[in-house]
Amino acid sequence: MKDPNNTRNTSPRRGSPLWIFFAACIALGAAAGAAALAGLGRADLDALLANPVFWILGAFIVVGEMRPIIAPGLTETSGATTSTTFSIAALLYAGLPVAAVLQAAAAVTCGIFRGRSPHRIAFNAAQYTLSLGASALVLQAFGIHPSPTSPWVPGGRDLPVIALVGIAYFVCNVTLVGSAIALHERISLVRALRWDLPYQILVHLALLGLAPLMVIAMDRSAAFVPLIVLPFIAVYLNASVSVRREHQALHDGLTGLPNRKLLITRTEEAIAQLGGAPGGSPLRRGEAGGARRAGLFLLDLDRFKEVNDTLGHPTGDRLLQLVAHRLTHSVRPGDLVARLGGDEFAVLLPTVRDEAAAREVAARLRAALSEPVRLDGVSFDLAGSVGIALYPDHAPDFELLLQRADVAMYHAKGSRTGVEVYSPDRDRNSPARLGLLGDLRRALDRGELELRYQPKIALRDGRLVGMEALLRWRHPERGVLAPDEFLPVAAQTYLMRAITHEVVDMALAQAEAWWREGLTVQVAINVSGRDLLDADLAETIAEGLIARDLPAAALQLEITERVLTGEPASGSGTVAALTDLGVALSLDDFGTGYSSLVRLKRLPIEEVKIDSSFVRRLTGSPDDAVIVRSVVELVGTLGLRSVAEGVEDAQTAALLREMGCDAAQGWHFARPLDAVRATAYLRRGIHTDGLPGDDGVFTGPPAPRLA
After folding, report:
1. Which key words tag this protein in UniProt (predicted)?
2. Of the given ranges (18-27, 182-191, 339-348, 557-566), which has the lowest mean pLDDT?
3. How far apart are CA 332 and CA 185, in angstroms?
């Protein structure tokens, strides 16, 4: 079976060690072949052409070279070529010129048929010629000089000589091929030979052992020669069936790439080569050849689903085959590309120097993918996100490497950087985060989640226009935690829905308590994009409002710009239901997304909150001042209320008032207050100086009046 990861057809760079090695071998092979042919006389040629044995032998050498016996676990480049038996038989029977010519012709024919590069064809012909030349020197050392006119038929006493001939051929052939592989894949010669040396010894022992039997058959009658081939045919067919079954079990049927099973095997082999062991401890820096590493990449196509949905699955399949081809031709020699399923691929770097070198390979992969593609008359661009995990830096075994490469890949996709290396800080599956998730689950049952309330103040007259409810977790060991410290952990789990419903319930309960006191303040809560996918959210809010006899105006939902301007279809249904219910919507963090003027006008919102990142730089950055002024004017033109977040000083508040901003919130007015302090804030109405926030810091300027 053809190995899709085989890159040996790639021409070596001129002047490189591999190029020098090829050039030297080809030159020596050509010289050896020319010297041998120089000793071939006219009589030898006539005898060659007249004897049908040589024609049959030549045909067998070509067929043997074209159809190697590939055992399970091997490829066409490492399988056993039965041409060895026939070329050694030709050497013993008729001498080096005949054997070298027949074997070289077979190598050239096979190379052309299989589409091999010229340098590879020339090297194969040369290494066969040199190996046969080494065997011919052994024969000459024992005074044996076979030729077409004077063939040599060995007897029983010649077995030691034949054994030395076979050893010379095997050592020369394996050394030349192993050296080429070692230089090509940049590994040591010992490692290149160690991969399948026992198998090669066993196979060559069998193939070389049949050569003298072939000579005896040739000497008796040409009719006996085909009979020797029958055992080869039986072995070939049996091996082909076994290899086909193994290939199906270890390779992807669509692309021909290795699958997850073979990737696991190769990764474990790479780890073992670096001195580790599957399931064992990671290497310490400085071990395994100067802290060499293994790298595992996970690559996911960014827009494959669009191609599948638009052009159909057959086109999508052809695209995956094209991607497989590009990937295998973009990695280094010796690296392995595998398909894990769908549009997800993995790349194994058995050895990589460091993180920077791994990033270089990943960048090359993305560059290869980015070339335009044309399928079914449609041109489009491809892109992929790559996550990198290194052994032993990030994980000690395959499963953990793959998991952490997956974490890095999703971070690369989410941040749109294209390539990311695993970082424990971004791993939501780290033990610390998993522990926090367990604590959060218990926090819901124990009522450890609380709300803090921060006033929104009208800048023109100091009226209170609402309270934003901010979630806090009173952790029994770590104290009060802000949302950024625990919500990202819950965002991709079922807990997010439970937390949102808990926040809605707490906010409505507090609003009910205030409204019963005559403190008719609107309470705003934040909802995420995941919340909008919850079809029950609108129903839950409606039931809560009815149960507490509250109008819809008592509640406001703050939704970030990125979510509200890009929500999926399933989320837009929830937004429509909330709008029909009469619940006010606020566009939060405006300026951080990509809203167009037309889209902003169509959104079902009554308020736009300018992101604090612009507001905090308002007095010191003219550019930010221009942005904020433009947003305020835009929002006013659309008939919406503008609210500035993160106002921390009187100068910023004054500048916003001058710009015409409707309202603001921030530490300048009040820090987030717990329910008790927030209620006191509302009750005092006109006089709230000296009221501390939830962190014990006193609030600032004049008290607002209730709207």
Report:
1. Membrane, Transmembrane, Transmembrane helix
2. 557-566
3. 8
Q: Which helix (H) or strand (E) holds 450?
A: strand 449-458
Q: Which of the 8 DSSP states describes residue 673?
A: B
Contacts of 365 (CB under 8 A, 6+ apart): 297, 299, 327, 330, 331, 347, 384, 386
Judge whether 48 and 98 are in contact, CB under 8 Å.
yes
- Over 50: is that where the pLDDT of 259 sits? yes
Query: Side-chain half-sphere of 140: how many Cα atoms within 13 Å?
Result: 10
Query: If pLDDT is split at 50, 70 and 90, which confidence band does 126 have?
Result: very high
Does the pTM surpass 0.85? The reply is no
pLDDT at 296 over 50: yes
* CA 40 remoteness from chain centre: 58
Residue 351 main-chain phi, psi, to 5 deg: -140, 140
Residues forming beta bridges with residue 96, ordered by sequence position: none
Classify the C-alpha dihedral 200-203-206-207 as positive or negative. negative
pLDDT at 234 over 70: no
Cα 586 from Cα 469, distance rounded (Å): 13
Q: In the chain, pLDDT over 90 holds for what percent of residues?
A: 23
Structure tokens at 689: 């100086």
CB atoms within 10 A of CB 376: 11
Phi, psi (degrees; rounded to nearest 5) at 590: -65, 135
Which has more pLDDT, 215 or 644?
644
**535 C-beta neighbours (distance < 10 Å), count:** 12
Are residues 126 and 25 in contact, defined by beta-carbon separation less than 8 angstroms?
yes
* Bridge partners, residue 449, by sequence: 473
Rg (CA), the chain: 38
The pairing of beta strand 344-352 with beta strand 293-301: antiparallel
Condensed to tens digits (0 to 9), the pLDDT of residues 563-608 reads 555 444 434 677 888 888 888 888 887 755 444 445 566 667 888 8
Which residue type, as a one-letter code, is found at position 53? Answer: V
Nearest Cα neighbor of 454 from 602, 223, 643 is 643
How sure is the predictor about 468, in pLDDT bands with cuts at 50, 70 and 90? very high
What pLDDT, on a 0 to 100 scale, did the predictor assign at position 596?
Answer: 47
Distance between CA atoms of 246 and 74, rounded to whole angstroms? Answer: 10
SS3 at position 641: strand
Spatial separation of the C-alpha atoms in residues 446 and 571, rounded to whole Å: 31
- At 229 the three-state DSSP class reads helix
Percent of residues in the chain assigned helix, strand, coil, to nearest 5:
55, 15, 30
Would you mind telling me the total number of residues written for the chain in this entry? 707
At 396 the pLDDT is: 87
* % of the chain with per-residue pLDDT over 70: 80
**Token code pair at residue 201:** 């010894």
- What pLDDT is attached to residue 209? 79
**Whole-number Cα distances in Å, 48 to 92, 99, 150, 214, 227:** 15, 12, 11, 17, 22
What are the start-end ranges of the E strands in 603-657? 607-610, 641-644
CB 302 within 8 A of CB 409: no
3 state SS of 346: strand
590 Cβ contact partners less than 8 Å away, ≥ 6 residues apart:
561, 608, 609, 610, 611, 631
- Cβ–Cβ < 8 Å for 299, 306: no
Map tokens 């099973």 to a residue.
261
703 near 685, Cβ under 8 Å?
yes
The encoded tokens of residue 341 equal 């399923």
Tokens matching residue 604: 């079902």
Between the alpha carbon of residue 631 and those of residues 326, 478, 564, the distances in Å are 46, 39, 17
Q: For residues 397 and 264, give the distance between their C-alpha atoms in angstroms, rounded to a whole number.
A: 9
Q: Which of 442, 423, 558 is nearest to 490 (CA)?
A: 442
Q: Is 295 helix (H, G, I), strand (E, B) or coil?
A: strand
User: Pairing state of beta strands 384-391 and 336-341?
Assistant: unpaired
